[in-house]
Each structure stands twice: as structure tokens, then as C-alpha cells.
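Objective 1.3, modelling of assemblies. Example input:
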Amino acid sequence: NAGVTQTPKFQVLKTGQSMTLQCAQDMNHEYMSWYRQDPGMGLRLIHYSVGAGITDQGEVPNGYNVSRSTTEDFPLRLLSAAPSQTSVYFCASSPGQGAYNQPQHFGDGTRLSIL
Amino acid sequence: SQQGEEDPQALSIQEGENATMNCSYKTSINNLQWYRQNSGRGLVHLILIRSNEREKHSGRLRVTLDTSKKSSSLLITASRAADTASYFCATGLSSNYKLTFGKGTLLTVNP
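Predicted structure (C-alpha cells):
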């Protein structure tokens, strides 16, 4: 059982480039979410999804797009990378349609640097 | 905005000692969760405590919740070097489906 898998683990981009961070889970979880973790800031929610075809914005959604075409996958797209998006990105999933009452399963993160 | 705030920001103890971390939050919640993060890894869920519970145990972990003071504590007894990690509280509210994380406490357990 792989759990939550994030790819790539590391990425360096130039300002203005676009890329997609991949997240896949094999636990048939309905709820999936993306966080970014910055030093001294804790984890901040970017986007989340309560099921296939349903997404919503979190606390810091600007500059990011998501889609949820399948239960398993929840990719995060950076449209035009900016240095302020340098961060560690975590994907998480849980059963049910809410994160508030379920343990979250996290991937090991994608470390992204924007030059 | 951050809901939970952990205290202290950093804690250094000797192996075998107990470690206590606190979490304060601002608004009413349905649940509170604690997570551990080892360096370079994702977060791992430790305990979920509901708003109608006052105390919960899991192995060497003891979590308390005081909704009147809007605070929670995580106690790790008989700490081991392997407990060295960052610990985060996260508050959950049924009206918005989300968890809001604090900034974490960095625990260092010295052998």
C-alpha cells in the first residue's frame, strides 16, 4: 500500500515557467488537499477537493490551479512560477468529505525552488 | 489566518524526560488533531480529540483539550531520541471542511 505519492521530490524552475506537481493516492479517499510549508509559517491550505469533479480554494490559492478528474489523482499546476512560490508542497488525503474530522495522510512533499 | 498556535516554538530535553507542548486556538472547534513531522518527511497523524472529549491516550502520548480555555496539550512521556521532530496541532471545524495548522513546536531529544 503506497499511500500518498508525490512527484517529483525536487524541482528547480525559472521565473515564468509552468509545471504540474503530481499527487496520487491508492486508498480510495474522497478528500484531497494541497498545502505549502514555509519556514515559520506552518502549513497553509492552497486548494482542496471533496471528490472527483469538485474543487475549492483554500487560504492561499493565487497562482495555482487544480482539477480532480479521478478519485486517485489531484495535480497542482503552477501557471507562471514566481520566486514567492519557492516552498515545500504537501499533498494529503482522507476518507469522507471533510478534513476536519479525519486523520490526514500526507505525502513526503515536493521541494520546489523558483529562480 | 492561523487558528492554532503551538508553544513553545522549540523544546530541547534529555532522553527519558517528559515533553509537553501546548496549542492555543481562537474560535470554537469540532476537533483538534496532533501531527508529527520528521525532518524532510511528510506529516504523520498522532491523535484526534473531539470537542466533547477532555483527554485521550495513545501509547506514550497523552492529549488534553480544554475548550473553555481554547487550548490543548500534547505530553510525550519517557522521550526517546527518535521522538525528535516537529509537532503540529490542527483545528477542524465542520462548517468549512478544512484543517488549520499551527506553526509547530520543534522537539529535540538528546541521547
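The two ends of chain B are 37 Å apart (CA to CA).
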